[in-house]
């Protein structure tokens, strides 16, 4: 089993979102995990040329890193995308990846049946985390993936990895000290792996 995590933060140094994604991947005991930082890759914008709709090669893929990312995603059994909230949506670098991955959809849904989970982090306590999760989950549905949420304590944990730099009293913390966000991310990673194994044992994968 291979689970690929994509960190959608444009930061090259410490990223809160990456911290949660690492927690999600570290919680997976069976199988291999791989973390891709979207900021490490050169991803050109989608120009809307519709070459992919005509099943022609994407002209942008000739000179950027999208083919390298696509190869790793096609090999994965599951994908977890983690994104910070940027004006309650995903950062532009991640949106570029999302738009360019349309080619995989047009090429017979190459991401179909991969198990998917989402993680989000924001500055503010109510900073748009759920909007980001919603955008990521809808993206995964559009790619034919199987979207799952975590199943932790029904009175303690949410259904995805999510948190904020801002504490309830308005002061600030690091994602490392955001215990519920780390726990939620770990639960999400475990759930994603569990569903992959269930699909495998039922012969679906
Ligand atoms: C351009 C930009 C827009 C942002 N928009 C929001 C926002 O709408 N709500 C919020 O709570 N935080 C917002 N933030 C703060 C980030 O979500 C926050 O710093 C997050 O921890 C960044 O994650 P990272 O360290 O993984 O990059 C924004 C930050 C930037 C740079």
Walk me through this protein's architecture:
This protein starts with a strand and ends with a helix. Strands 1, 2, 3, 4, 5 and 6 form a 6-stranded parallel β-sheet that branches. Helices cover 35% and strands 16% of the residues. The longest helix has 23 residues, at 179-201. With 205 residues, the protein is of the alpha/beta class. Bound molecules: flavin mononucleotide. Flavin mononucleotide (FMN) binds next to helix 1 and strand 4. The site of flavin mononucleotide has 18 residues, from helix 1 and strand 4.
Strand content: 15-25%
Biggest sheet descriptor:
6 strands, parallel
Overall number of strands: 6
Structural class: alpha/beta
Radius of gyration: 17 Å
CATH architecture level-2 label: 3-Layer(aba) Sandwich
**CATH-derived topology:** Rossmann fold
């Amino acid at each position: 089993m291979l689970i690929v995590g994509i960190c959608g933060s444009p930061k090259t140094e410490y990223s809160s979102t990456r911290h949660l994604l690492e927690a999600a991947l570290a919680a997976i005991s069976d199988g291999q995990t791989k973390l891709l930082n979207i900021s490490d890759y050169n991803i050109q914008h989608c120009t809307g040329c519709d070459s992919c709709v005509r099943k022609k090669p994407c002209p942008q893929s000739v000179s950027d890193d999208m083919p390298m990312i696509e190869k790793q995603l096609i090999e994965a059994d599951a994908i977890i995308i983690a994104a910070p909230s940027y004006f309650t949506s995903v950062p532009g670098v991640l949106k570029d990846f999302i738009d360019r991955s349309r080619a995989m959809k047009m090429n017979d849904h190459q991401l179909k049946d991969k198990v998917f989970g989402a993680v989000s982090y924001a500055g503010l306590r109510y900073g748009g985390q759920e909007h980001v999760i919603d955008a990521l989950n809808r993206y995964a549905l559009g790619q034919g993936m199987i979207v799952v949420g975590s199943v932790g304590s029904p009175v303690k944990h949410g259904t995805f990895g999510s948190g904020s730099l801002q504490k309830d009293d308005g002061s600030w913390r690091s994602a490392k000290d955001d215990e519920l966000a780390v726990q939620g991310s770990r639960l999400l990673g475990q759930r994603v792996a569990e569903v992959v194994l269930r699909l495998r044992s039922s012969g679906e994968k």
